[in-house]
Amino acid sequence: MFVKVSRSKRNNKVHETLQIAESYRDSNGKVRHRILLHLGPTDKFIKKDVDTLINGLLRAKGLTLQDLDSNIDNVKAFGQIWALVHLWKELKMSQIIARQKEKSGIKFDLEAHLKSLIFNRLDDPSSKLKLLTWLETVYIPGINKDDIRYEYLLRAMDFLIAHKEKIETQLANRLLDLFNQDLKVCFYDLTSSYFEAENSLVEGDIRQFGYSRDHRGDREQIVIGVVMTGDGIPIAHYVFPGNKADRSTLQEMLNDIRRRFKVKDIQLVADKGLLSNDNLWHLIQQGYEFILGESVRQSKDAKSVIKEANAHKEATGETIYERLTEREIKSKDGKKEKIKLRYVASYNAATALKRYKNRINRINEFLELSEEIKKKEINTEDKYHQIKSVLSRKRLSRFFNVELTEDTIEIHKQDEVLSEEEKSDGWFIVISNAHDLSKSELIARYKDLKYVEHGFYELKHSLNLRPNFHWTEKRIRAHVMVCFLAFQMAVLFEKRLSGIKLSWQRAMESLRRVVVVEWENEGRRRKGLSRVHVEQLEIFQEIGSSKPTLLSL
Questions:
Q1: SS3 label, residue 505
Q2: According to its UniProt record, what is one Pfam family this protein matches (predicted)?
Q3: What's phi and psi for 476, nearest 5 deg?
Q4: What are phi and psi of 440, to 5 degrees?
Q5: Is the previous residue joined to 41 through a cis bond, with omega within 30 degrees of 0?
Q6: What are the beta bridge partners of residue 236?
Q7: What is the pLDDT of residues 326-356, one digit of tens each?
Q8: Beta strand pairing call for 289-294 and 427-432
Q9: Where are the domains of the chain?
Q10: Closest C-alpha among 543, 448, 533 to residue 499
């Protein structure tokens, strides 16, 4: 909200009128202005009238323009909170929460507690207990820190997970509307997150030991799936037991997305960990288009394509090669069908060199350690097991055979296997039944999975998905959902900042320097606001927010 001077010309004379206006974004995302109140001609106002009007408005809010002649006893970060409040409104979070709260019987201020949980995750991720301390360092309009209670934060989390589907779906539809998008392309990937707390597992526990992307196989974990649009907008998340195989989650996710978002035609883009005969059968039978990663080592077709791709690259210099291949797939109940799939291979020289050097280093390290183990004063069988353990740890088992005789250990390098591996360095393969994309477009779309990978980085690092000290399934799921909702706000924030190429983290850092100061004067609590500088003002303008003023407090 701001004061606008409107000028018009009548009878060769310029007339000026004072108006109170506000900024908003239209349906195309353009910043527009609308008039809220006409104050009248500027020549009717004198300085005393302006001061009286401003001071009257401030007094109504318990504020003052007088100099800070008393000792300031509190300083709170505010600029980043003001931006988050704007994004919260833009996402219509208040209405989404209110619709679900209506029949819940909750009497405490649910929105204030959810806002505290999500804003904390974006500003200074911490435990629920430390969140209460964080509230003392920030100024959130409309929230009194003394009203936020630990037990209500937990109840707010319970509310979230009880209404996950409706809240998530409404928020996703709001994001799709804001960016005028549909769900024609669906990116899906998974990650894992381990637990710090050591609580005993119980029957049916969602925490399980499984394949850890964090290389913490010694810890219980959960598996998390995230669905995004082709433009990197997160619309849904899933939490699975820690021992759940990636490929076993795909059909459940697709059925859920179709049901919730009422979409029939979806093009699925997913990594090779989701590929299986059963999933291919499901995708074909349900009419999905797909672009899936394929292992360059695990199928005869892939090995054949890589061999042809290398020959094609040597002959033409082209780094993308395509072959149409007939592949037989079968369902769980034994039904078979032959389908034609596009196999597209793409080569990157830098990746090839990196993989080659990495493998050579691991081989040299293994051979050196093996010699050291052989010299140990232990029995031959123990040496054998130690060498096998190093081989496995270095991920080199398929390149060496280790044989134990009565008194010796022989290590044989598998030169043929190594040669095949070198030929696949730098190549990756996708398979697809989509025919409206060129081979280059197919590869480019598959590479857009980076949006999901970046999202996992945000969840794990910027938003501190871990450490997770919860141990009941309901609270574990709720913790992940809080992080996911914060992630959705972060994506909206960063997309609004695309015009100035600023990350949401950098924007938050800059805005934190806009602070609210508090002091005691004449028996009343007073508030003041630090100056908003050029960079901060630009951030507010980019996201469509007004500049904070004393009246914002």
A1: helix
A2: DDE_Tnp_1
A3: -60, -50
A4: -70, -40
A5: no
A6: 227
A7: 888 887 888 888 889 999 999 999 999 999 9
A8: antiparallel
A9: 2-68, 73-179+474-552, 181-348+426-468, 352-424
A10: 543
For residue 99 the two structure tokens come to: 């619709």
* Structure tokens given for 6: 């409107």
3-class secondary-structure state, position 498: helix
Radius of gyration for the alpha carbons in the chain, expressed in angstroms and rounded? 30
Which two tokens mark 54? 């401003």
- Within a 13 Å sphere around the CA of 39, how many CA atoms are in the beta-carbon half? 20
Please give the biggest Cα pair distance in the chain.
113
CATH of domain 181-348+426-468: 3.90.350.10
User: Which contiguous run of DSSP H or E holds residue 339?
Assistant: strand 336-347
Confidence (pTM): 0.80
Tokens 């199928």 identify what position? 299
Pairing type for strands 267-270 and 289-294 reads parallel
Question: In terms of C-beta density within 10 A (0-12 exposed, 13-18 middle, 19 or more buried), how is residue 391 classed?
Answer: buried
The per-residue pLDDT for 68 is 45
How far, in Å, CA of 301 to CA of 250, rounded? 23
Q: Which amino acid does the sequence have at 450?
A: K
Name which of 265, 131, 89, 283 is nearest 185 in CA terms.
265
The identity of residue 253, as a single letter, is M
Q: With the C-alpha atoms ordered 499, 501, 502, 503, is the resulting torsion angle positive or negative?
A: positive
Give the model confidence (pLDDT) of 216-264 as tens digits.
777 888 899 999 998 889 999 999 998 888 899 999 999 999 999 988 8
Judge contact between 531 and 78, C-beta under 8 A.
no
Q: Cβ neighbours of residue 433 under 8 Å, at least 6 residues apart? A: 283, 284, 289, 290, 339, 340, 341, 342
Residues pairing with 427 in the sheet: 347
The torsion angle over the Cα atoms of residues 501, 507, 509 and 514, rounded to 10 degrees, is 140
> What are the structure tokens assigned to 250, written together?
């795909």
- What is the number of residues in the chain? 553
Residue type, 38: H
